[in-house]
Amino acid sequence: MMGRMEQAANAADRRDRRFGYAMASPSLIVLFLIILFPVLSALFTSLHEYTLIAPNFDVFTGLTNFKLALADAEFRHSAWLTSRFVIGVVVLEFIIGFAVALMLNKVERLKPVYYAILLCPLLMNPVIVGLIWRMFLHPNLGIVNYLLGTIGISPVNWLGDTKVAIWTVILVDIWHQVSFMIVLLLAGLSSLPKEPYEAARVDGANAFQCFIHITLPMMRTVIVVTLLIRLIFAVKTYDLIYIMTRGGPGTATDFVSYFIYRTAFVSLNIGEASAMSIILLTAILGLTAYLYRYMRSLN
C-alpha cells in the first residue's frame, strides 16, 4: 500500500515538474533570444577578424582579439577609470542613501510624498539627465557657475577640465541614482522586526549601539544585494558619458562601455570590441559570483 502511495506521489511530482517546465518554457525561450543569443553571438564574433570594412567571418583568429584587448594601454586605462568611477559612485551613494534611509525610517507623516520626491530623478531617462546637467554645467551660460559667481567663486570648467570632469560625472550619477539606494535600503529597514530594538533599549543601549549591533547585522543581506545591483549598473554606464563628455576631455572619462563603443563604431573593429565586451562580462560575472557566495555565507 505504501509503495503504491509513493509511486502515485512520484508520478504527481513528475506531472508538476512537466507542467512547470511547460509554463516556464516561453519565458526561457525569450530569455535565450534576448540574453544568451547576443552573448553567444558576441563570443563567436570575438574569435574572428570581423570589421565593418570586411563584415565576414572568413578569418578565424582564436584568442588574438582578447590578447590585443588586454595588451591595449587605452583599454587598461579605461578599465582603471571605470574602477574609479564605480568605487566612487557606489560608496558615496551607499553612504548618502543609508543616511537618508535611516532618517526617513523614523518619519511617520507624509512618507508617500517623500517617496514620490525621491523617485523623480530615478525615473528620468539618463539621456535627459545628461542633457539637463550639460546645460546646467556650461562654463559660461550654466546656472551652476552663475550661482557660484554670486558668492564670489570663479567659474569652473566642469566638463572640460581633465581633473574635474570625472568627479562631475560622479556627482551627476549620484544625483540621478542615489534614490535607488535610498528606496531599497529604506524597504529593508522598514521590514526589520521591532523586538530587538525594544530589548536593547531596556538593556540601556543607545542609538549608535543599536545601529552597530542590530541594524547592520540584520541589514547585511539587503546591503550586499543593493551594492551588487548598483555596481553592475555602474560598470555599464554609457548614456551620461556619451551625452555629457564623449569620453573627454582627452580620455579623462573614457570608461569601458564608451571605449568599446568607439572601438566598434569609430575604429570599426567589431571583433576586438566583442572581445572587450566578453572580458567586461566575465569580470562582472566573477564579481557577482563572489558577492553571491559572500551573501550566502551570511545566512
List keywords for this structure.
single chain, 299 residues, mainly alpha, 0% strand
Structure report:
This protein is mainly alpha-helical. It has helices spanning 2-46, 64-71, 73-105, 111-122, 126-136, 143-150, 165-190, 195-202, 207-235, 239-244, 256-265, 270-298. The radius of gyration is 25 Å and the shape is flat. The two termini are 41 Å apart.
The helical percent reads over 70%
Helix-strand pattern: HHHHHHHHHHHH
Distance between the termini: 41 Å
Write down the overall geometry: flat
What is the fold's blueprint, element by element?
Layout: H1 2-46, H2 64-71, H3 73-105, H4 111-122, H5 126-136, H6 143-150, H7 165-190, H8 195-202, H9 207-235, H10 239-244, H11 256-265, H12 270-298
Helix pairs in contact: 1-12, 2-12, 3-7, 3-9, 4-7, 7-9, 9-12, 11-12
Question: In a nutshell, what does this entry contain?
Answer:
The protein has 299 residues and is mainly α. The protein has helices at 2-46, 64-71, 73-105, 111-122, 126-136, 143-150, 165-190, 195-202, 207-235, 239-244, 256-265, 270-298. Helix content is 75%, strand content 0%.
